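Design job #97: recover the sequence.
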């Protein structure tokens, strides 16, 4: 596999995983956090150690806990880490009541973060990997039909157009929902493909479960904010809560974020896929006594077709031999891929920091208010 992580200009965000982690650790420590870290078995592109880090604030036995996570999709962690660090530098959780705790998780998928890839070391989309691997894995016959068209033989416009012609024909035949389910709902059959969910729990999956047991065992209610990029209006938050109407998760999300923010307005997808194996499923599995309200907070980047191009670019890059010289074509594919997930545009990065810090603040304010009401 080729080196995806060769240097590029990246505006105000950290230029590397190591820089992001060290800024985050400093900011969290200065705010009085207790840090817990698990080391990944592999290393980053410069041989650096990789970690999933957790910063714990407040009473460890708090009944209500806010969890803010980043880097589930490795590369997207450059944004989420910058938001967490900026929030900490601006005060972070502040003084917490005894029944409220805050847990920040940094780099759930540190290998992908350090190597500028969305997936794990096994090309696994971690947010499709939280399944019970003791049962048969879900079939995705639509993806099987698309796969060969998505594996470009070269990175050029003729090949890209050929792939999109196949995607468009498939979508016209099956409709938007079935298209989304096939393309990015998750697939367990093609290890080189896109949105591959794996054949076993990834290191990041097991490490996250370990961290949840260690730090959220006493929680009765948890609000999770998982920071992502790639869906929604450019540089602005797009909130996704998949809980059923009337459930704890949905009602709590409505109270904290408001109906308008959860309306799906501004989506860059005509239909969101019916995702399988989401990271939030670890919470239910590991914390049976805890009710969870989970939010994927996306920051929009590019329109969907450009995001799809980015996925094809990464799949092509990953299939180039490690010995291949770094060609102009590979650099172009790499730049297109990175810009789709972490735009170098300073205005985009500034908007993500501003709105991201506001989201963290809204989460803690909402949770403290809720806990006062529940415990009044
Ligand atoms: Zn993501």
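Job complete. Output follows.
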């Amino acid at each position: 596999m080729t080196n995806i992580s060769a240097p590029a200009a990246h505006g105000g965000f950290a230029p590397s995983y190591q820089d992001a982690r060290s800024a985050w650790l400093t900011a969290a420590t200065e705010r009085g956090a207790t840090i817990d870290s698990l080391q990944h078995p592999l290393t980053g592109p410069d041989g650096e150690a990789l970690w999933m880090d957790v910063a714990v604030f407040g009473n460890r036995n708090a009944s209500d806990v806010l969890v803010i996570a980043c880097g589930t999709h490795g590369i997207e962690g450059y944004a989420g880490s910058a938001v967490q660090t900026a929030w900490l530098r601006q005060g972070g959780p502040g003084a917490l009541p005894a029944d409220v705790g805050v847990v920040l998780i940094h780099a759930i998928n540190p290998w992908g973060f350090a190597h500028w890839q969305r997936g794990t070391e096994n090309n696994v989309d971690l947010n499709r990997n939280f399944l019970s691997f003791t049962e048969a894995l879900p079939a995705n016959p639509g993806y099987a039909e698309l796969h060969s068209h998505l594996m470009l033989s070269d990175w050029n416009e003729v090949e890209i157009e050929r792939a999109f012609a196949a995607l468009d024909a498939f979508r016209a035949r099956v409709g938007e929902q079935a298209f989304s389910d096939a393309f990015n709902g998750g697939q367990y059959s093609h290890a080189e493909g896109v949105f591959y969910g794996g054949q076993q729990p990834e290191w990041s999956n097991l490490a996250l479960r370990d961290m949840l047991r260690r730090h959220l065992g006493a929680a009765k209610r948890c609000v999770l904010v998982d920071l992502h990029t790639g869906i929604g209006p450019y540089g602005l938050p797009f909130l996704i809560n998949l809980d059923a109407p009337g459930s704890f998760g949905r009602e709590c999300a409505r109270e904290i974020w408001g109906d308008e923010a959860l309306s799906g307005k501004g989506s860059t997808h005509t239909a969101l896929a019916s995702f399988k194996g989401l990271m939030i499923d670890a919470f239910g599995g590991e914390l049976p006594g805890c009710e969870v309200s989970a939010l994927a907070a996306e920051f929009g980047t590019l329109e969907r077709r450009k995001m799809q191009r980015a996925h094809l670019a990464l799949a092509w890059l990953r299939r180039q031999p490690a010995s291949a010289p770094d060609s102009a074509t590979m650099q172009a594919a790499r730049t297109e891929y990175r810009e789709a997930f972490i735009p170098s545009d300073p205005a985009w990065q500034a908007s993500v920091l501003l709105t991201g810090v506001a989201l963290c603040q809204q989460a803690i304010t909402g949770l403290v208010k809720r806990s006062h009401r529940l415990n009044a």
